[in-house]
Structure formats: structure tokens, C-alpha cells
Amino acid sequence: CRAHKGNLNHLVLNRGFQILELKAPFKSKVIDKSNVIKDDYSDWLGVSIDQDVHETIMAIGSEKPDWLIVDHYSLDFSWEKQVRPFVKKIMVIDDQANRKHDCNLLLDQNWFENMEYRYDELISGDSEKLFGPRYALLQPAFFLERKKKEKVSSAVNRIFIYFGGSDPYNLTGLVLHALSSKEFDHLLIDVVVGENNMHLDKLKNIVSYRKNTHLFIQIDQMAAIMSKADLAIGAGGVNTWERMCLRLPSLVISFSENHQVLLGDLAKNKFVDYLGSVHEIHETKIKNSIINMIHKISNQLEKDNSMFELVDGLGSKRVRKKLYE
Asked: What is the pLDDT of residues 248-289, one digit of tens each?
């Protein structure tokens, strides 16, 4: 990992894992002056491809690892080809399908209508493909909580809110404002944010005024908290599959380009209720969507559980088995 500003490397170290930390770049353009996440991923690396290759090879050292697992939107075929002589095999985690890869195995744990064909021109025919939420990398706790939860709730009493660790647009705050209307006073609200959330003080203030609202910061017990909910409100990313694994109906908002396509495809196939991108969202729209969703669930219009069979929570085990084969 490179030591970018705001990194969470200490969390990995605290869990007893080793990190080979590459030096922080002089500057990073991941977030601009308006705190908006950029989709120009070429800037995310923070250094040149050649410098990153050199530092990665130095970090690997003389012992050839069985697998190098690469998960970075700025890295592609040119980086992987240079590092290949120093490793036995390369696995790539991606969901963009916008650049070529030199890999033995590619994992895209997301669901798209054209899922089977997205990488046809981007990877070798010899590369093994692990596509779809069947391979979603979820913590074991989600599978265990799923076993306890046999069906979708027929009433909404508790709502779970999570828009990722940083939530640059403060969608968490917008949703909390919408839920502060009197008709939602009876609802219990669980809110999860990351420790680097730049809106933390504002969120703490909102939570202090709204009864039955709990704010959790950088927690480990995500599955246990989510399993109590009857409805979730959030974004795309891995939490999409965590929600579906727990058979949790969801209202979703996108704030990055790659999630717009993913959530659009999921919505068309009735896996989620997609409210649109962050630029289309306002408090009234969120409020009305929550009211409509509560009505749908209370009238058992969401009783078809087949939509939740897309994710069973065993994806990590399947990926691990492939690596050990």
C-alpha cells in the first residue's frame, strides 16, 4: 500500500498483518478543492507508473510470491507486465472493464447485464474469469447473519444508512435530514461512517437531536448492525452485496460514474431501488422514496426473496479455493 493521505493502513496493522508501505506522493489529486471524488483514475496512483513498478519490485524482494493481487484503478497491462517476472501469478480485482490486463485470474464481483462479455478484448483467453456476486468478497459474518435471517421483513421499524467510509457529498447528512421529519419519529436509525469522514462533526450534531439514532464510526460489527435493519439506504460498492446477502431491501444513490451503470442494471432487474446520481438527489426526493418503500414493504410487495439469491456470502471462500488450486 502507498501511504496516501487519509489511508487506513493502521487498521490492517492492528489486525496483525504486515504492510509494506510505499512512500506518500508529494501531492494527490484523488479529491479536488470541492471535495468531489474524481473519476480520472490516472491521478490516483500519485506517482508515475515506472516509479510505482520500481518501488513495488523492491518491496517484493527476492522471494517470488505465488500470487500478486492487484486492486487499483490506475494500474493496467503496462504495470502488470513489468512486475510479472518477479511473481508467479497475478490476480486482478476490477470492475471498470476500461483497460487491458496481463493476469492469470480476474475478479469482478459486480453484476452487469453484459457481465460475461465485458472483458473479452481486455484480457487473454487463458485468463480465468471470476464474474458476479457469487464471488463477492464478504466477511464470514455476513453468511452467518444471513442464515439467521430467513425472510424479508414485512414492516419497516429500523433503517440502516451507509455511504462508504468517506462519503464526500455528505449523503449521510442529507438522508438524516429527510428522516428527521415527524412522520419518521418512530423509526430506529443506525448510521455507519468511516473515521476519515470529513462531515463527522455535522453528523454527530444531527444524531444528537434525532431520537432513536445511533452513529457508529469505523466499526468491525457491520454485519450484526445491518442484520437488525428492515431497510437500507446507501451507495454502490461492496455494501451493495452485503445488503443483498442479508436480504435487506435498499434505496441506493450513486456518486461515481462506474456505480451509475452497475446500479442502473441492478435496478432494471429489480434487485435494488435506484434513486439516481448524487446530482439528481434532494431531501424531498429521499423523503418520498422512503415513504414509498415503507408502503411497498408493509404491503408485502417485496416478498419475493429470489432477488436476494444473487449473493450467498460464500464468495471469499470460492476465491480462496481458486487461489489455492
From this structure: 999 999 988 778 888 998 999 889 999 999 999 999 999 999
Q: How many CB atoms lie within 10 A of CB 292?
A: 12
- Give the other-Cβ count within 10 Å of 122's Cβ: 17
Q: Give 40-103 as a DSSP string.
A: -GGGTT-S-HHHHHHHHHHHH-SS--SEEEE--TT--HHHHHHHGGGSSEEEEE-S---S----
CA 178 remoteness from chain centre: 24
Q: Report the distance separating Cα 53 and Cα 191, nearest Å.
A: 39
Count CA atoms within 13 Å of residue 205 on its CB side.
6
- Could you tell me the pTM of the whole model? 0.89
Per the listing, cell 428527521 goes with 180
Within a 13 Å sphere around the CA of 317, how many CA atoms are in the beta-carbon half? 8
- Where are any strands of DSSP class E within 21-103? 67-70, 89-93
Q: pLDDT, tens digit, for every residue of 29-50? A: 544 444 444 456 778 899 999 9
Q: State the chain's maximal CA–CA distance in angstroms.
A: 64
Contact 24, 2 (CB under 8 A): yes
CA angle 78, 80, 84 (to 5 degrees): 125
